Amino acid sequence: MHHYPDAKAVVRDLSPDEPIILNRPHAAARAARFFVEKFPGKSLYAVKANPSPDLIRILWDNGVTHYDVASIAEVRLTRSVLPDATLCFMHPVKSRSAIREAYFEHGVRTFSLDSSEELAKIVEATRDGDGNDAPDLRLCVRLRVSSEHAALSLASKFGCDLIEAPALLQESRQFADWLGVCFHVGSQAMTPFAYVQALDRTRAAIAEASVVIDMIDVGGGFPSVYPGMEPPPLEDYFKLIHQHFYALPIAYNAELWCEPGRALCAEYSSLVVKVEKRRGDELYINDGAYGALFDAAHVDWKFPVRPLEDDLIKPEMDFAFYGPTCDDADYMPGPFALPEDIQAGDYIEIGMLGAYGAAMKTDFNGFGSAERFIVADEPMASLYDGSRMRPETDNVVSLR
Ligand SMILES: *Cc1c(COP(=O)(O)O)cnc(C)c1O
Fold first, then answer.
1. 332 with 299: CB under 8 angstroms?
2. Engineering a disulfide at 4: which of 9, 17, 25, 290 sits with its beta carbon 3.0 to 4.6 angstroms away?
3. What PANTHER family does the database record attribute to this sequence (predicted)?
4. Which of ligand 1's atoms lies nearest the C-alpha of 150?
């Protein structure tokens, strides 16, 4: 794969007519090392955030040994890239055939669930030919917790509530060699107190169930940094999670896990797009809602932008973007601040698209292709380059 210093060099060399994804392996490696060294437990990479085999290998090379996979396709993909990784099937609703294949063909032992029906499915699908229950199941009961502190809710679809949890934990304990509790506070959780609240619920569920708990998995939700969304330092999240984990009534050797997706890969990729047309304060660009900019269109996410031409001299103004398909919904309100004199034919780099960006591209309307190159410059924002030195610690303390 061709390497370039930065996006400007790519545009100068290729004048590309198709959108281009730029990957920064050094940024993903740095994020992986940060979690491996600083999170007080085990960090699983949530593959759905970006299933690129290159990225998965970078994370592995930098110490990430466990992977949160949510479909049989993610199981197969991750296993084919990393024969020795530990895969954990953390989608609480799976098909029998997916469970069976994961267990018998790919060595998956850890499964999450949020209902008795799913427990029965897992137990049945992992029985051997003689009808014996699997002796080595590691089960993880998913608890429903609040998403109130997160930019994207994950509260309504999965998780059992506090009324159901004790009975489900007791029932699961009978089939589990190792039993955990997991939850997800929602993506881009803007304060560590999201995890404190969720761990309080976890405590209530465990106390009521009075079963031995071997593992607590605080899920994903760790933020990255975007325009208008500057989270407190991740160290503050780790510290509070650690404190509240220790106070739980669990086995003395219980493990602490987390499942970051976004925080491990947001900085990995950016996107170069071409302006095809300008209409007032609207720019028609060649990627959009059905491409890497799904979140910019559908959940109004703000991504950083910068122009790639050197001859733009006017001050910035706010623009909205249209994507390339013929669909009105292919619209990104932004606002995106770019020089007033930007015009058709110019190029723009859109940053922080490594998580839920590069992974979202579809072929709808014939606009799916994108070449990928490696660049060496810094991502447009970073939680890991030392530029954000605990600026909001006081703020966090005062919230307690
Ligand atoms: C999506 C998902 C994650 C990753 O979430 P982020 O907000 O990207 O960190 C982790 N665990 C589960 C079960 C998920 O569904």
1. no
2. 9
3. ARGININE/DIAMINOPIMELATE/ORNITHINE DECARBOXYLASE, ORNITHINE DECARBOXYLASE 1-RELATED
4. 7
| Residue 88 main-chain phi, psi, to 5 deg | -125, 125
258 Cβ inside 6 Å of ligand 1: no
**Cα-Cα-Cα-Cα dihedral sign, residues 375, 381, 387, 390:** negative
Output the CA 186–ligand 1 centroid distance in Å: 8
Residue 144 to residue 150: CA distance in whole angstroms: 14
Comma-separated ranges of CATH 3.20.20.10 domains in the chain: 26-265
Query: Is 26-265 a domain of CATH 3.20.20.10?
Result: yes
> Which homologous superfamily is 3-22+268-375 in?
Lyase, Ornithine Decarboxylase; Chain A, domain 1 (2.40.37.10)
What is the percent of the chain where pLDDT is above 90?
86
Q: Of 223-227, 265-269, 304-308, 309-313, where does mean pLDDT reach its minimum?
A: 309-313
- Nearest protein Cα to ligand 1, atom 3: 220
pLDDT in tens, 178-211: 999 999 999 999 999 999 999 999 999 999 999 9
Q: Is the pLDDT of residue 159 over 90?
A: yes
User: In which residue are the tokens 């002796």 written?
Assistant: 135
75 and 52 Cβ atoms separated by less than 8 Å:
no
Residue ranges, comma separated, of all CATH 2.40.37.10 domains in the chain are 3-22+268-375
Distance 93 CA to ligand 1 centre (A): 15
Q: What is the pTM of this model?
A: 0.94
Of 34, 35, 67, 68, the one to substitute when testing ligand 1's pocket (max ligand atoms within 8 A of C-beta) is 68
For residues 65 and 142, what is the distance between their CA atoms, to the nearest angstrom?
A: 22
Does residue 305 carry a pLDDT above 70? yes
Task: With a cut of 70, say whether residue 394 has pLDDT above it.
Answer: no
